Amino acid sequence: MTAAQADLEGVRSEFTRSLRIEAPQVEDGAEIWRIARDSEVLDLNSSYSYLLWCRDFAATSVVARDTASGADGAPIAFVTGYIRPERPEALVIWQVAVDSAHRGKGLAGTLLDALVTRVTDEQGITSVETTVTPDNTASDRMFHAFSERHGATLEREVLFDGELFPDGGHQPEVLYRIGPLTT
Questions:
Q1: What is the rounded average pLDDT of the residues 36-54?
Q2: Structural contact between residues 115 and 60, judged by C-beta atoms closer than 8 angstroms
Q3: Dihedral of CA 2/77/32/133: which sign?
Q4: What is the Cα–Cα distance from 150 to 126, expressed in whole angstroms?
């Protein structure tokens, strides 16, 4: 077991008492939108898009619910993803966010592992792709730790230069390709 795997196991045991990880439901869309908005890091999509995401991409997304506040706890974190049409062996991670009260505990990594395990079992993916801006050190660390935990190579290249974004001032989006997944 690597150091990253040991750290994550410790975090998982902390959460297992009051955490439920599952596919999102349409009713979770508003709360997922709020978590994304409050992250102050993610590019916020319309509230409508989060409702659609919960309906159309639930099989490749997860939410974490804190059941300590009741059996039907509201989402406290989420990971959204989809299978890339041109590379059906690749799960693209679209957004990862954790409510501010639950950050710094490894929850994002726990959700990412749970989602990848489920989608690997159900759809046979062998790699993960995502984009990260150069200033997002938390995501950079999370995806590097993920690749280490799964014995996979992480390759990076600029996917979209900042100049391509019409609103100006956007940093480049760097594509992370992680695979092949071995664990």
A1: 95
A2: yes
A3: negative
A4: 11
Please report the sign of the dihedral spanned by the C-alpha atoms of residue 59, residue 123, residue 103, residue 49: negative
What the block records as the tokens of 2 is 């690597």
Whole-model pTM over 0.70: yes
**Residue by residue, what is the 3-state secondary structure of 91-140?**
EEEEEEEECHHHCCCCHHHHHHHHHHHHHHHHHCCCEEEEEECCCCHHHH
Question: 55-85: per-residue pLDDT in tens?
Answer: 999 999 999 998 876 667 899 999 999 999 9
| Short-list 95, 90, 86, CA closest to 49 | 95
- Token pair in block for residue 112: 């990412």
* Contact (CB, 8 A) for 91 and 127: yes
Is residue 177 within 8 A of residue 127, CB to CB? The reply is: yes
Which residue type does 141 have? R
Question: Left, alpha or beta for 90 (phi > 0: left; psi -120 to 50: alpha)?
Answer: beta
